[in-house]
């Protein structure tokens, strides 16, 4: 699938081959092909249009060196622009406070609970004492799932199976953390299959009550354009700090990374690439640009 995208771009750039100069005519033709390819890679239409408009302008302003073809130059410019659009540098999570509190939000099935376990393992490796908190009051199975993951990664999981109030559970968990020398608290919240008012209210209330130093929004990269809409809805409501893009081991091209960043203007901080507890990577914009371009 990545080859497909790359082939398409190659085809587009071929229109320039053999021509030593970038002109308005040949760059416009190529930009159109790049735009199509980006849209095929799940990049939102508006974003793809704005990127290719930028690329056109930049390309026209650049001299083609003898050592590179106009096609190569356009690939390079496209790569640079995609990287810039995704924030340029990798972004760390903020671990402030004692304990630092990280709130995890997202739709059901996005990979929230799995990511919570992975993040706990990741932070534990930095020699910090972590506490996982199960705050899904609707699905007892989600609580059990987190317990299993906690056991796997050797991190304690705080639960209150009979309490149906997420705000209370999170506050109690933070108190428990203080008493038990836990330095980082990761709170896994309840998700729904679609965005609904009650879920949003609940997460907003939890966030207000506990004032986390980091709120991460988890989204399934395979959901394509929907990923952008979901990100926007969550961001409008809870103003998160960063995004976690999951299931990048699947056959998605990752264009959602560009659209989400452009639409909500929040950095992507982690990518999840599998069900195992070590399948977590810090997000590098440059690597993602290469992946999208194939
Ligand atoms: P939650 O409802 O948001 O808590 O989602 P879960 O963490 O339960 O994940 C939903 C399903 O997706 C589970 O079967 C996970 O094993 C799976 N999953 C989560 N993250 C990834 C990932 O990065 N790659 C793959 N292939 N599967 C994942």
From TrEMBL:
Q: Where in the cell is it found?
A: Cytoplasm
The residues that cross the membrane are: none
Q: Name one GO cellular component term.
A: signal recognition particle
Q: Could you tell me the keywords of this UniProt record?
A: Cytoplasm, GTP-binding, Hydrolase, Nucleotide-binding, Ribonucleoprotein, RNA-binding, Signal recognition particle
BP term (GO), one: SRP-dependent cotranslational protein targeting to membrane
Q: What is known of its domains?
A: Composed of three domains: the N-terminal N domain, which is responsible for interactions with the ribosome, the central G domain, which binds GTP, and the C-terminal M domain, which binds the RNA and the signal sequence of the RNC.
| Description of how the protein assembles with itself and partners | Part of the signal recognition particle protein translocation system, which is composed of SRP and FtsY.
- Give the protein name, as stated in the record: Signal recognition particle protein
What does the organism's lineage look like at the top? Bacteria, Pseudomonadati, Bacteroidota, Cytophagia, Cytophagales
> Its encoding gene is what?
ffh
Span covered, complete protein: 1 to 294 of 443
């Amino acid at each position: 699938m990545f080859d497909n995208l790359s082939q398409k771009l190659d085809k587009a750039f071929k229109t320039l081959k053999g021509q030593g100069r970038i002109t308005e005519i040949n760059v416009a033709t190529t930009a159109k092909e790049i735009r199509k390819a980006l849209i095929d890679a799940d990049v939102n239409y508006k974003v793809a249009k704005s990127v290719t408009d930028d690329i056109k302008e930049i390309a026209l302003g650049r001299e083609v060196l003898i050592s590179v073809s106009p096609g190569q130059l356009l690939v390079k410019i496209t790569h640079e622009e995609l990287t810039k659009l995704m924030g340029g540098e990798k972004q760390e999570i903020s671990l402030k406070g004692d304990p630092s509190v990280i709130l995890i939000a997202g739709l059901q099935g996005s990979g929230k609970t799995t990511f919570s376990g992975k993040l706990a393992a990741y932070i534990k490796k930095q020699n910090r004492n972590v506490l996982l908190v199960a705050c899904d009051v609707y699905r007892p199975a989600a609580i059990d799932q987190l317990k299993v993951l906690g056991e796997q990664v050797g991190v304690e999981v705080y639960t209150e199976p009979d309490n149906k109030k997420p705000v209370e559970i999170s506050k109690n968990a933070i108190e428990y953390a203080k008493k038990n020398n836990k330095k980082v608290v990761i709170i896994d919240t309840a998700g729904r299959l679609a965005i609904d008012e009650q879920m949003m209210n609940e997460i907003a209330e939890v966030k207000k009550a506990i004032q986390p130093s980091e709120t991460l929004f988890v989204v399934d990269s395979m959901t394509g354009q929907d990923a952008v809409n979901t990100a926007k809805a969550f961001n409008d409501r809870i103003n998160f700090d960063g995004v976690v893009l999951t299931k990048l081991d699947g056959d998605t091209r990752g264009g959602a990374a560009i659209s989400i960043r452009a639409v909500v203007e929040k950095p992507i901080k982690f990518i999840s690439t599998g069900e195992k507890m070590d399948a977590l990577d810090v997000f590098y914009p440059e690597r993602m640009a290469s992946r999208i371009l194939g």
